[in-house]
Amino acid sequence: MSTPLITPGLVALDLVAADRDEVTRHLADLLVAEGRVTDAAGFLDDVRAREAQMPTGMPGGVGLPHARSAHVTAPSLVVGRLAQGVDWGAPDGPATLVFLIAAPATGDADHLQILAALARRLVHQSFRDSLREAPDAQTVADVVTREVVPS
Fold this sequence. Notes:
single chain, alpha/beta, Mannitol-specific EII, Chain A, 6-stranded mixed beta sheet, 6 strands, PTrfase/Anion_transptr, sugar transport, PTS_SugarTrans_NitroReg, protein-N(PI)-phosphohistidine-sugar phosphotransferase activity
């Protein structure tokens, strides 16, 4: 990938939101600001359609919304760390870490590769803790790049 999967501009720390739509909207705005999504409303429609198929809450306080969309210009990963958990449909409670995966509509392989690599890391408490304890956006981006992005 020529464009980095994640940058500090794609990290939101201490995010405050009432529900998953508000979280997703905030994270999508970061994608727009970074030039990775051309139409926030269209992209959010694609994310909502995917979420309607099956909630993407994972054990350990994680939300993992994701979508392939014609509005995405480059495979991207946005991380949101929430001050208060938001219900993401996980059996063990609300999510305090949210990872929004955005892939171009034609990027099926990229989308699945990112999702699989992230899911493999998220099962480890130490990985989740390192993101929750990271002092700044640069550290979060560095941890995700080191642990998730294929070399």
